[in-house]
From TrEMBL, chain A:
Pfam families: EMC7_beta-sandw. It comes from Hericium alpestre. GO terms for cellular component: EMC complex. Belongs to the EMC7 family. InterPro entries: Beta_sandwich_EMC7, Carb-bd-like_fold, EMC7. Its main location: membrane. It is a single-pass membrane protein. Residues 40-148 form the ER membrane protein complex subunit 7 beta-sandwich domain. Keywords: Carbohydrate metabolism, Membrane, Polysaccharide degradation, Signal, Transmembrane, Transmembrane helix. GO terms for molecular function: carbohydrate binding. Residues 1-19 form the signal peptide. The chain crosses the membrane at residues 145-163. It is found in: Membrane. This is ER membrane protein complex subunit 7 beta-sandwich domain-containing protein.
From TrEMBL, chain B:
Keywords: Signal. It comes from the Eukaryota. It holds the Pfam family Beta-prop_EMC1_N. One of its GO terms (biological process) is protein folding in endoplasmic reticulum. This is EMC1 first beta-propeller domain-containing protein. The lineage of its organism: Eukaryota, Fungi, Dikarya, Basidiomycota, Agaricomycotina.
Amino acid sequence: MARLISFLALLGTCVTVFGADVAGFIRWNEHCTDIADLGQAKVVLDNGEAWGSVNRNGNFVIPDVTPGTYLLSVISHDHHFDKLRIDVPSNAELPKVRPYIAGTPMNPPSPIKLPYPIRISARQRNTYFVPREGFNVLGMFQNPMMMMMAAAGVMMLATPYLMKSMDPEMVQEFQQNQAKMANLQSSLQTGDIKSGSA
Amino acid sequence: MRWLLFLAGLCAPLVHAIHESEVGVVDWHKLQIGVPLTGSLLTSLSFHVPRERQSADGLLLSATSSNVLAAVYAGNGSVAWRYIYDASDPIVLYQQHKDIVATLSGPGGSTLRTFDSSTGHLILEKRLHKPDTARILEPSDVGTAISFPSDDTSDVLALTSAYTIRRISSSGNVVWTWTSPDQTSSVIYSHILTTPDVIYALGLTKSFRSYNLHVTTLSPTTGSILASADIASDITSGPNSLLPLTTPKGPQVAWLEGEYLRTVVLTPSLGGKAALHTGAEYASVVDVGLSAKGHFVALKADGTGRVLKLDEKGVKLVWEFDDSAKSEHNAPSLYSGGLDADGHPYVARVFWSHALQKASVHVYAPHLADGKGLVSGFTFSFQTNVHGIIKHAALYAALPKPYDVIPYLALTTSTGAIQLWQGERALWTREEGLSRIGVAEMVEMPERKTVAAARGAETFLQRLQRQMRDAKDFPQYLIHFVKRFATGSYASATSRATPSTENDSLTRDAFGFRKVIVTATELGKVYGLDSSSGEVLWSRVLGLGWAAQTGGHIVPVKIFVTRTVADAEPEEGGPQAVLVAQRIADNGLVDTVVFHFEALTGKEVDSSSPPGDILHGTDIISGPLLGAYLLEKETKVVVLVDEFRQVYLYPDTPASSKRTSHRQFTGHQPVLDAGLQGRAQLHPTFASSLPPHEDILALVTRPSDPVASLGKSQSYKRLNGSDGEAYVGDATWEERTWKEVVRLREDMFWARVGGVR
């Protein structure tokens, strides 16, 4: 029994989980020119399960990543970066890098393969401020209420022309209907409902 | 209430951002770095002077309690850079060398980082071992060290987990790794000493009675082991008692054995014998950061401080500080070492004099006066009532003229302030205590008084004088009036609500945005901040009461505004606040203390102490506090509950105890794993007050039934004495009717929801 336990203990020391380093670099571009522009930034896998910091040359290393599929994202205060899908194989192969679009399923993976070490660059600078809005006539008419008002106005102007082009009998009927409606309205106002309904 | 929240949620998208032009106008933020650590020389505040620049461009480096590595400009106290470490990666130590700062962080020093000292940019981040495989030692800096090889490379030597030394190149590659072959044995390496030819790893190994010094020498280029030997010694304290020193004779190690100093000269073959110096008896040795210059400080049993130097002839006493023995006149001394621009060492003794009520610094310069040494003394008016006591002092010395030493002292105080003193002159103060805010409360400011009201009888002359005084603001008023009349410009919500004139201070702006933020920090200080600018209006140190003798600290629990502007009559004075805090003395006793002060000025309400003094508290409970509430009636009363659920009132007047005769029913919600050691913690979630003549006699839990979504998990009834389930008061027919109506309504409710009653 003791021998078995010692064998198991020996086995336990042998089973070490292979941990690969995931390395890459940030390519400086017009959105993010250098480390002073980027500031303190972290490259994380999934929700911060493993992470590495970006150094002044833009390089980063995420140490001891256990095999699996991860979503790589860059946490930066002022810049927005693309997200990537990283597959860390359990053998000594290099990690596989694929693009990932937020909101799409992780599987099946994208057929496009990106080179390793990971290259990633800033897509845009985060803007935390809204521009001050000036007076804008077009913007005002894009408001649904304004559009409804405009439509009603057009109808009002167009009614006489429509009446002209209509069949005389139809016009008569329409006028009768209108008179009825007017009568109903006035009766409602006076409170004499009986006369209106007649 | 829910509807209110919903409405607030609807409104939220409309005000989700501010315009870029308004940034810094209506809002503000202050860059803090955290309170510098003072426990070890390797994490506390230190000067960094770039070689090619003047001292005015110097930086102050520190690791802080907020787990931040930061640099502050010595010239003006502004933040040069800061690097925020992850919470799981605490800073163990930092070392500066040339233009880089290297740090080890995480368990056992698992991660090495190097920074450019002038910009704070990360040069290198290297994981040295997995955090979970570290050998955990206490304190955390034992078994970790950083050193730099004595060659032209910018490589780093890192000792981690007490048994592994790595040489890491500037690009992050590990040049070599040496791991102690006997990890299982009890050798704990703690220091690295480098020479051009050899690297010495110093450690302690356990022997029967005490510890033995163990030294291993390694090749700097390959990391291969050259020699390894135990040096016969008898060290009783831990690894921090070893002092590795660089001397003209070569590297040496000094330690205290019993009462005598013992030193050994290190050679690559480790053939040196330890020499015992029986000339003087010492109680302890202090590393002042001058080990590269061979200097250190040893304290005698009576506290007298001596500067010692190791040279060719052995230990040499270079200076004994006068009157540095423990006495009633002076507080215990702090010793600190520093360099000047030419690299000459200086040793300073900083102490507080109870007699003078001032702080003093004695700076010893060994190289001056033809090598005899020169001491310059300064007394500086450190405000102990404002900044507490000096916890750490870092020294940099300037030598503008021969024999004219000007010391620059960077002090870390117990309230979390960082101060830079140039001799007797205070250059700047940073209130880093504000990075450790415990509790805070907003207090409204009173309206501005336009015309002082006449009080009582006034003679003609007095009235004339008053009117003349009032008339001095008239031109300004006129200009404002004309401007407003002509341009229609009124106070804008998007302009800073700062006072326009001197006498406007501490008055509200047109919209009431400007308030006083009263806040208490974990370091025993209470501040009044101007909400429009973030400036400190006033600050007071919280007094320790009887615990001042033993030492202790004050943990703020809650702040209540006991008198607002609306409550206060003009002649009564301004708004008042009460800070409820727990005083934890160093002997373990916990008391609950209340501090009562004016919110606008910080003046103590009963004004027993002068304005510049510390704020005195009132002991309420001789024990810990369970909870504190504010009862809002005509006057506000703070109710404190001790661990035996006894109720204490503040202020405890007959009127207030009468007012608090009514009951409150409070519901607590347990939050799992929120407290210490994974214990659940209770948070009050709701409270409902009962009328004065009612009592809670029992709580009846609602029977469990299919109806699950009722909002509250408990319903409660107020029972009246012995006659079972009846509502309070059967005296009048009104009460009886009301009771019946309520019962009917409840029945109808249960019937509708299908519950069984």
